[in-house]
Amino acid sequence: MPLYIIIWCLCVIPTSGFSRLTDTGTQNVTLRDEAIATKTDVFRQLLNQETLIRMSLVKDVQSLMKDMIEMKERMKTSNKRLRDAEKEISSLKIDIHSLKTENQRLNEQAVQYQENFKFIGQNFSEIKQNFPSASFRRVQYETTVNEKIKEFESNTSMVLYSIKTDVGNLSVKLQDLNKHTTELNMSVSKMIESKLTEYSVSVNKSVSEINHKLLSSKDFHTQMVYNLSAVENDLTSIRKMISASKTSVGFTVGVTSPSSDWSGNILVFPHVVTNNGNGYNPNTGKFTAPTDGTYVFFVTADTRYKNYLYLDIVHNGTSKVRTMSNESTSYQTGTNMAVLQLVKGDSVWVSRNRGKSYYTESVPITTFSGFHLSNNWLLQT
Asked: Where is the signal peptide (predicted)?
């Protein structure tokens, strides 16, 4: 459109150049030729300018097309970002809704906490008011407990003293029993020897009488042979009795090293004081009866520090009696005694029931003793 306007202006402007003073044809032709030449040059220049303008316009159009493509891409990216933003806004709306819900819940909890704090404050006030009375009651309770503890300690001391007294009496009785057994064994030996002497005298007398009477009667000789056989049987029985009385069974064993953490099963007493008859095995801690009969067993155990210990005298796997050393004070002593009827081959030992540790010294304090009451046959004679 601008091109047409320029051409129209060029066509109009030259027409006004005709001279109004002359009417000659020559001048008009010359002027007309010059005007045509001038118009041709102008037209050429306009065409060149149009070409340049068109080329510039093409470049501008291409640039605009490129910008349009870039704008479309940017619009796509913007639309995508817009959609993402819308999604994010939707998510944020959901989060805001949940936050509002959570905030409402927290506000409700805050109100409830405030009510609880008020209730706790009231309770604290009541506790503060009751604290003096509670402190007074605590002092009274501690006083009562201390009095009971003192009373318990006093009673415990009395009980311990009584137990120690009983243990001392039991030890004395056991010593007296051992002494009586020794004296009884000695008296048995003396009595057997006296009876043997009497039997020897009687036998010698009978032999003399037999020799005297043999000379007088053969029937009497037969009778005397029978009597001699009976006397020989009596002598055999007496010899067996003497052999049995000389073979006494008894032992006393102990431990000479204390232990603060012993928690085994069988308590082995390796230190042997006496082991007549070799019935006790210091390696296994077990006593094996060499003969049938009645046996007496005695055990003493002392705990180390404030530990407790319970020991059993066991016969062939069955607990018979039990010692008790509690942990109320240090170095508690537990003792007990058992009279058992054994068959040859039966075993007796000391076993831990519960607790740990024992105390002793180089001269044994924790000990195990036993002996055979082998004189029951005297009651029959």
From this structure: 1-17
User: How much is the average pLDDT of 293-304?
Assistant: 91
Give yes or no for a contact between 313 and 336, defined as CB atoms under 8 angstroms apart.
Answer: yes
Domain ranges, residue 311: 247-375
Q: Answer whether residue 363 shows pLDDT above 80.
A: yes
Q: Does residue 324 sit within a domain?
A: yes
Alpha carbons 133 and 130: distance in angstroms, whole number: 5
Tell me the C-alpha distance between 205 and 236, whole Å. Answer: 19
Strand partners, 333: 302
Q: From CA 313, how far away is CA 269, in angstroms rounded?
A: 13
What values do phi and psi take at 215, rounded to 5?
A: -70, -25
Q: What is the CATH number of the domain that holds 335?
A: 2.60.120.40
Residue 366 domain-assigned? yes
Q: Cβ of 344: how many Cβ atoms within 10 Å? A: 10
Q: Which residues contact 264 (CB under 8 A, 6 or more apart)?
A: 352
pTM score, whole prediction: 0.40
Does residue 381 carry a pLDDT above 60? no
Calpha distance 313→335 (Å, rounded): 11
Question: CA 219 to CA 222: how far, in whole Å?
Answer: 5
Question: Does any domain span residue 20?
Answer: no
The pairing of beta strand 250-254 with beta strand 309-315: unpaired
Answer yes or no: is 367 within a domain. Answer: yes
Number of domains in the chain: 1
The per-residue pLDDT for 349 is 95
Q: How far is CA 336 from the centre of its chain?
A: 34
Cα–Cα distance measured from residue 264 to residue 219, given in angstroms and rounded to the nearest whole number: 74
| CA-wise closest residue to 318 among 301, 338, 294 | 338
DSSP bridge partners of 371: 250, 296
| pLDDT at residue 17, rounded to an integer | 45
Summarised one tens digit per residue, pLDDT across range 40-85 is 888 888 888 889 898 989 988 998 898 889 888 888 888 888 888 8
Continuous H helices in the chain: 2-15, 25-214, 218-246, 377-380
